[in-house]
Fold this sequence. Notes:
Elements: E1 4-5, E2 25-30, H1 38-47, E3 61-63, E4 69-71, H2 89-94, E5 103-108, H3 119-136, E6 143-145, H4 146-150, H5 156-160, H6 162-172
Parallel strand pairs: 1-4, 2-5, 2-6, 3-5
Antiparallel strand pairs: 3-4
The structure holds zinc ion.
Zinc ion binds next to loops.
Amino acid sequence: MQIKEKYLTINPFSRPGKSLVAVKGIVLHWVANPKTSAEANRNYFENLKVGKDGRYASAHFIIGIDGEVIQCLLETEVGYHVGANKYTERALKELSTYPNNCTLGIELCHKDWEGEFTRETLQAARELILELCERYKLGRQNVYRHYDITGKDCPKYFVTHEDQWEQFLNFVFSKS
Ligand SMILES: [Zn+2]
């Protein structure tokens, strides 16, 4: 698939340049900023480098409303996408006490606050997830919502519509 590589500048707030200890899971997010592009969200992560808000955030990939994919971090690097004070039992059991050190994050853009994703975004997410699963020998059970790891309302549409999340996983791992 076509991926635009637009790596962030190494900096403490969004690209620490540390290595993942392993890739044990893939985590999906929503950008929580309606109508913004993949590029705009990539630039948001980049601009955190000045440390103005002291905010830490990033993800490895961002998928836009039209299905375009931007890569911000190498797959071997730690991103700041699932950090929290407290993690779910499932995350502690299946990942680690600091899941940022063993997961890849994918941000999904969306059109409104309900957060439903376009067909193009989901199609590209499917392709990317399958590629990563192949590369790291992962499967359906290794694909998480941010919610599954910290309880955060993210990606909102897949938290409020549990059935749609299941359906998305079915779509990703269907044979066609
Ligand atoms: Zn998230």
